[in-house]
Every structure is written in C-alpha cells, then in structure tokens.
Amino acid sequence: MAESQEKEQPRRRQARGERRIAQLLEAAASVFCTTGFTAASTNAIAREAGVSPGTLYQFFPNKEAIAIELGDRLMHKMRDTYGEALAPVDPATPLEEAVGAAVDRFIAFNCDHPVFFTLMHGPDIPGHITEEHDALHATLHARIEGLLSSLLPDAPPADLSRIAHMCLGLYKAGLELVLGHEGAERDAYVRELKNVLIRYLEPLVGDRLGSLEGSDTGATTTL
Predict the structure, then answer these.
(1) Nearest-CA neighbor of 91 among 214, 216, 217?
(2) What pLDDT digit, counting tens, does each position of 34-48 carry?
(3) How far is CA 201 from CA 102, 197, 204, 205, 208, in A?
(4) Residue 189 backbone phi and psi in degrees, to 5
(5) Inter-helix orientation angle 63-85/42-49, to 10°
(6) Predicted structure pTM score
(7) C-alpha to C-alpha distance for 207 and 172, rounded to whole angstroms
(8) What is the C-alpha to C-alpha distance for residues 181 and 25, in angstroms, rounded to an integer?
(9) Which of 27, 33, 105, 115 could bridge to 48 as Cys pair (CB 3.0-4.6 Å)?
C-alpha cells in the first residue's frame, strides 16, 4: 500500500506540472499575439497566467524557451493539419472543392492558433523556431510539388517546383490578410484566397480533376 502511494505521488506531481506548463503556454500565446514576441516579457506572461514570476521560472528560464516549446507543439499540430489537408481525394472531385477543402483546413488551424503566425513570421524570433519553420516550409513545399506531379505528369521538375512555390506564396500572402480581419470580412478574404488559387491552377490542371472518366479508373490524386 505504501509503495503504491509512493508511485502515485510522482505521477500526480507530473500531471500538475503538465497542467501548469499548458497554462503558461496558453498565457504566452495570448501575450505574444497582443504585443509580439519582442515586446513580450516573462512578467507579462506570468501575470496573464495568474502565477508569480517565480512559478514561471520553475518551468521556463526565459521567454525564448517558452516560445520554442509553444512553437514545437504548434508545428507538430500543423504537420497533422497538412497531412489531412493534402490527403488523397477522388479524381472526380472538382478543383474548386479540392482547393477549398485544403484552404479551409489550413485557415481553421491558423484562426484557432493565431500565435502560430506570430511566431513563424514575426521579427526577432528564436533561431530554433526559424530553423523548424524552414524545415516545415520545405516539407510542405515538397508535398505540394508531389501532388502537382500527379496532376501535371509531363511538367519538368523546375516548373513543378516553381508552381508549388507560387501556390505556397499566394496562400501565405492571403493568410496574412485573412488573419487581419474578423467576421464576415474574414470570410470574404477566405473566398478571395480560394479564387486566386483556383484561377491560378485551373489553366494548368485543366480537366484532370473533376473528371468522371478518371474516377472510373480507381486512381487517386491529392490536393
């Protein structure tokens, strides 16, 4: 009985520690979104979390460490998001529907986690986050390039790479506008972003998506 209680106590302390870390990360996300990373302070984060600075320092030595932990967790979620957003779809799916579904998933993630954009694109962010973001960007570019290769099998690799960069660049530019607005105006910018991507891809992809003949073959593609 005593041995069981001794084992239970570390587990409880660990659970309390995880809850406290989650509380601090949530507070940091709010502060970073409000002030930006550079102007944020550990005192402001502790105040937002409703704890003393000493409590914060039990878990994080500085705001850089907080940002890195927050960024790592969000990038893990982002990888799950683009895995779903760029999952295989039936070739009979119209281009508008395929693009719209992918954009909706990415926009939803960024709207649910606005601090992700702040950390990934703000000035003076920790070098570790910059490196992780560059790796994430490279992986996402490769996924887009891969799906384009299935839609444009005769395109030279340099063209596929360029088109993938354009798609990613158009999305990132549109994302900043989307996050800068709320409500109906945000929805309007989402529609505009989808329109831009669809009109860019439509003459390139042609009828390779939305083709009933393609669906009869049982083939799949991704977008």
Answers:
(1) 214
(2) 999 999 999 999 999
(3) 14, 6, 5, 6, 11
(4) -70, -35
(5) 70
(6) 0.77
(7) 26
(8) 24
(9) 27
Q: What is the DSSP letter of 61?
A: S
CB 174 within 8 A of CB 193: yes
With vertex at residue 108, the alpha carbon angle to CA 107 and CA 109, rounded to the nearest 5 degrees, is 90
**Largest pairwise CA distance in the chain:** 72
Per-residue pLDDT band at 219 (split at 50, 70, 90)? very low
The whole-angstrom separation of Cα 66 and Cα 29 is: 9
| pLDDT higher than 90, residue 87 | no
Dihedral angle sign, alpha carbons of residues 25, 27, 33, 38: negative
CA distance 156 to 110: 33
Rounded to 5°, the CA angle 192-130-136 comes to 60
Both tokens assigned to 198: 């669809």
**Residue 203 corresponds to which tokens in the numbers above?**
């003459």
57-74 burial by CB neighbour count: b if 16+ within 10 A, else e?
A: eebbeebbebbbbbbeeb
